[in-house]
Amino acid sequence: MAQLVLKNLYKRYDNQKKSLFRKKKPPNDYAVKNLSFSCHDGEFIGILGPSGCGKSTTLRMIAGLEEFTAGNAYIGDIRINDLKPKDRNIGLAFEDYALYPPLTVYENLAFNMRAKGKSNEEIKKAVNYVAPLLKVDDLLDMKPPALSGGQKQRVNIARAIVRRPGLLLLDEPLSHLDGKMRQTLRHEIKRMHHEIKCTTIIVTHDQMEAMSLADRIVIMKDGELQQMGTPLEVYDNPANEFVAGFIGEPPMNLLRSTIVTAGRGFLFTFADSDLRVEVPERYDSLIHDGMEVTLGVRPVDVRVAKKETAGSFVPIAFYENLGDERRIGVRVGSMLLNMATPDAVYFERGQMVQLEFKAEKTHLFHPGTGERIR
Amino acid sequence: MSQQTQLLDSSQNRKTMLILEDFGRNLGLTFYALFALFPLVWMVICSLKADAEMYNTVFVFTPTLDNYKAVLLGTDYFKAFFQNLVVSGGAVLLTVVAGVPAAYALARYDFKKKEDVAFQILSFKFAPEIMVILPVFLIFQKIGLYDTYFGLIWVYQLITMPLLIWVVRGYFEDISVEVEQAAQLDGYRWFDVFFKTLVPLIKPGLVASGLLAFIFAWNSFTFPLVLSGFNIQTITITSLRYIASDTVHYGQVAVAALIAVLPEITARLFIQKHLVRGLSFGAVKG
Amino acid sequence: MARITLERIVKRYGKNVALDGLDLDIQDNEFFVLFGPAGAGKTTLLKTIAGVEFPQEGLIKIGDEIVNHVEPMYRNVSMVFENYALYPHLNVYDNIASPMRSKLYRQDEATIHQQVERVTKMMKIDHLWERRPSQLSNGQRQRVAIGRCLVRSPNVFLMDEPLAHLDAKLRHFMRGELKEMQSSFNSTTIYVTHDYMEAMSLADRIAVLNYGKIEQLGTSLEMYYTPCNEFVARLFGEPEINIFPGEVEEENGCLGVRALGQQELMPIEEDAAQVLREKEVRQVDVGIRGNDISFSFTPREGSMAGTVYANEPIGNKVVMTVDIHGTHLSLVAPNDTQARIDQPVYIRLNMKNAIFFDGQTQEYITRSQAQSHICSKGMPISERG
Known about the structure:
The complex is a heterotrimer.
Chain A: E1 4-11, E2 32-39, E3 44-48, H1 55-63, E4 70-75, E5 78-79, E6 90-93, H2 105-115, H3 120-133, H4 149-161, E7 167-171, H5 179-196, E8 199-204, H6 207-213, E9 216-221, E10 224-229, H7 231-236, H8 241-246, E11 253-262, E12 265-269, E13 276-278, E14 292-297, E15 302-304, E16 314-321, E17 326-332, E18 335-341, E19 352-353, E20 355-357, E21 362-365, E22 372-373
Parallel strand pairs in A: 3-8, 3-9, 6-7, 7-8
Antiparallel strand pairs in A: 1-2, 1-4, 4-5, 9-10, 11-12, 11-14, 12-13, 14-21, 15-20, 16-17, 16-19, 17-18, 21-22
Chain B: H1 2-47, H2 66-74, H3 77-108, H4 114-123, H5 129-143, H6 149-174, H7 177-185, H8 190-219, H9 222-227, H10 235-240, H11 250-270, H12 272-279
Chain C: E1 4-13, E2 16-26, E3 31-35, H1 42-50, E4 57-62, E5 65-66, E6 77-80, H2 92-97, H3 109-122, H4 138-150, E7 156-160, H5 168-184, E8 188-193, H6 196-202, E9 205-210, E10 213-218, H7 220-225, H8 230-235, E11 242-251, E12 254-259, E13 266-267, H9 270-279, E14 283-288, E15 293-296, E16 304-313, E17 318-324, E18 327-333, E19 344-349, E20 355-358, E21 364-367
Helix pairs in contact in C: 3-4
């Protein structure tokens, strides 16, 4: 039905004062740089990144609200660059609800179809199909000012899908809502998608939101694509240091380390610390003695060793019990290594402990470029 | 490569568009400038004509400085100029001293009928001066304010105060209360907070509205016409004197008006930056 | 140096009561967290202590002195405002230097320079000295606000959601910094947040506020393990605790709960059952956390059948929401769990860790002490009445 393909998309906002007589400013950086990805029909894609990474610009370009500086976009086989927004068969729901206050929820949902001259029966059928999906069927006679924030957002999304668009675009739909409502609506959006199987793109800065909703995640930074993959892929195999640090709560530990040869294998060493960690064998062909790397390891993938071994000890910097899990920090030279565990453990500050790394869950990055070594 | 050429193509097109746009815009602006400046040019021309040439020449005439001599040396024009300065300046000063605290109170404190009071103040500006002038005249005569500096300064508040309070109030409302509170916690007394933190933030609005108030006061005609006599003469009234009962010395009127306009133009050019920024409410945010 | 005591504080805005007869005793050098939903009165309480808001009733003491009528500047407190409250006309350096340039806390410029350098380095904003607040991002503004607060060493630090606008990574880092500083500070800190992890991680003690009243006051572990009512229980923990109604019934001399439309009674540990018996409670609400529910996709002995309502991978774990006869229970699953929506699933509750609330009042009744998995020494579960 609707496969979306973006090819070498560029966007630059024009900052040139339109005059030949004035001195020119240097042009702006690209807001979106050489972005290419495609999503399959019926897929749920999350575009994730920090503020200013170009994710909303991308969405607005797909929707037709921004011109393309360069590049092409296709929905199905149709190139959409020059299509007007209304001809792209797209449903849009923004963070702000922008419902028509004097109209009832039913009329709000029906508005677009009325504008297109659909018959009353058709409209009724479409509204009655969509309303229960987003649990707004009880609200149809109410007017927007009487609704809560969560309800408004439901209506907003329902309005976007009532025409059964080929592509549904959601721009930070949950960021206005409080925690509980956000979780509920997250579930409902996911179930709605499961029901109508409409290709959906959600833009968000919340990694948890992207992970929990999307089939695949597009991670952007400074207008450039960093990685695209399933939630598990980007979590387990981050393409670079940025992705590694951006995905996951608590964030991944990224420690500067120097590699030294020891016997047949290699060891990670750390400045001002006598901690030594064995380098997993699979890296042997990629590294050499004296090489500087960034060692990435998630807080859940390091733990305090239960049995004492010959290795070195590090001091506990902090211990906190968050109920669901325990967080432990140890000092490695001047760096702090965080650990998280659901196990019931307890440590005193200053206590000396030994660490155990899950070898298969360690990642190496180039300290300069941040690219993954693999 | 194809992308590159595409980019180039579009930039070529854009350039021609830009040239056309520029040309059109500048043409329009030139016409407007001629249109807007014409009265001023006409005034300058008039001021340089002798009375005899006033009606039968347009652009071609024998320029003379007689009008200037007559006005500047022959009459007490400078006295009026100075007195106008005192009255308008005094009015603005009083407005600032009384108006800024009033604006602060209207912005910060909640009291009964606050909005009514605020609107009442603004509505002074709506009332035609001619409506209140007779009672004020009678009262001023009774209490001895007629034809005094203070009398005029006082009554000018009707012109200057509402504007300033209204603009500056908007500025105070834009400053979050927390900024004041933070300054207090930083160890500043309220007095310091006001002068070190608030005044810099309302400055654009204060300057802009103060300047406008000055211009309004400077140009005021009705009040000084009725409420001043021989002691105080403002420039607007003085300019009329050159329209005598038998002849009208247009040249001299033009000279008087031209000089009267000078302080306004100077001030405006000088503070144009503030004026633009200051009157767009809330521009200081962030 | 600065113990803070509040006695019966009442603060009203017109007809709205923001603080409703609040009593609080904050120890010297304590890191005290105010926690609660929006509109609970947290910010008002901070401002009341700072002296920029005045309560209609009640006493505020800092140390032994009643400060109701002491001007804010003489209270020697510094505060991070939620909306930053930076001086828009000053650059970052001057903003942070401001507390040390007032008459009261004046320092010489050399000291100021040194101090500003110290805090801006700590906040990682030392490259932004020349910028005005309008040229900063929200996260940077917030760090300037924190910097201005930390540059002095007052008796009391008041912090209103100081990390709310930072991105996740920076927030995590700053939390660590604050924690480090807390141990070296010689001051009392009162900290407002709506993030339960921040609260639990930083606090010596937490007060949960709601509608201007304190719902519960205690350590973070007390909040988590023995919440005084369902409201508090729901605030701590991610995913939110599951609470469902049930009826206490006796079968073969053992107490159990009938709930979720199940045939079998859910067992109650002996010590908890004892309390329920004594109080003769019939209607209970059972609270059980996501960690205490196990699942499988094939039926097992003693498991309940349901369907997958939602399956959300969030990195190191998957939160699965299971629909059992219309009740939704969230559980924590390993991070590679795959499940289709509406797929059948079988779950088992670890009733040893269940918390029992009164079905009517929603107040805490009891939980079993047998499975005390509280591992922090010196923080036992306090038995409640």
